[in-house]
Each structure stands twice: as structure tokens, then as C-alpha cells.
Amino acid sequence: MAKGSKLKHNAKKVWGWIVKGVSFVWRQTIVYNIILGVGVALLFAWLLSHAFSEYFSCKYLIQDSLGMPSFMCNGHDFLVVNIPGLSSVMDGPLEWIRQGILWTVLFFGIVISGFATFIINNIMKVARLLAFNKQEWKALLSTMRVFITILFLFLISFSLLIKL
């Protein structure tokens, strides 16, 4: 019985430390943004290199999905003739398609996050936008100009980072 209460006390203590740490980081806006910015960059890189990669290959599309023999993708050496497989022709364009789909999904995730943040932070502005207030629309378009510029610069720098 004493072990259970001591374990419970230690768990509460550890949870308190975690809450204090998270609260400290949340209050320190620059630290919070740096930590989550690094997390976002790492997630972007991981998603772009690994997400759906097993589905965009000759092996998955030809062998697994259609049940074709492995020599269709790998090729086969006969005594006189070498027949190349389809993976040398298919995998490159499939990788381009996969990258394009991922960039599109990530871009729309960024846009949706930006709009959701805007709506949450500016409920009254949203009401005036819905009422077609001309000044609010000018302010929105000005904000969007800055947002799109920053997003464009971010995507260019991120794509250059991926290429290196």
C-alpha cells in the first residue's frame, strides 16, 4: 500500500515538473516558436522523404497490387538477352508524383493553419469580413500579402534545404 502511494506521489511530482516546463516554454514565445519550428522542419523533412514511398514504387503497383511476377520490376537475365525491369523506368516519375502530392498536402496544411489562426485570433474581424466591410477586406489582403510572401520564402528555403 505504501509503495502505491509513493509511486502516485512521484508520478504527481513528475507531472508537476512537466507542467512547469511546458508552461515556461509556452510563456517564452521565442523559445516555443524555435522548438516547434525545428519540430515542423524535421516533420517536413521526414514526411517528404518517407511518406507513401512504399506505395509509389513499381514493386507495390505491379507486383503487389496486380500480382505480377517479380521479374516485371526487377528484370531478368536470360542466357543471351538481358530484359530490364520496369522499376528503372517507373520509380523516378512515381517519386516526382509522390513529392508533388506531398508538397500540395503540406502547402494546404500551412494555408489551413494560417486561416484557422487568423479566425481564432480575429473573431470580430471575421464578423466584419462577413458583412463585407471594405476596410477589413483591405486589411485582410494586406495581411495575406505578407503571409504569402513569407510562405513563399519559407517554401523556397525549405526546398533548397531538401535538395542539399
Please write out the topology:
Elements: H1 2-27, H2 29-50, H3 58-66, H4 71-74, E1 76-77, E2 82-83, H5 87-121, H6 123-130, H7 134-163
Antiparallel strand pairs: 1-2
- Rounded radius of gyration (Å): 26 Å
Categorize the overall geometry.
flat
List low-pLDDT spans: none
Which strand order do you get reading across the main beta sheet? 1-2
How helical, in percent, are the residues?
over 70%
Largest sheet: 2 strands, antiparallel
Assess the beta-strand content as a share of residues. under 5%
Q: Number of DSSP helices?
A: 7
Number of strands: 2
Mean pLDDT: 84
Element pattern in H and E: HHHHEEHHH
Q: Termini, distance in Å?
A: 58 Å
Class from secondary-structure proportions: mainly alpha
Descriptive account of the structure:
The protein is mainly α. 82% of the residues lie in helices and 2% in strands. It has helices at residues 2-27, 29-50, 58-66, 71-74, 87-121, 123-130, 134-163, and strands at residues 76-77, 82-83. A two-stranded antiparallel sheet has the order 1-2. A hairpin with a 4-residue loop joins strand 1 (76-77) and strand 2 (82-83). Helix 2 packs antiparallel against helix 5 (87-121). The chain is flat. The model has no long low-confidence stretch (mean pLDDT 84).
List keywords for this structure.
mainly alpha, two-stranded antiparallel ribbon, 7 helices, flat
Short description:
About 80% of the residues lie in helices and about 0% in strands. It has about 160 residues and is mainly α.
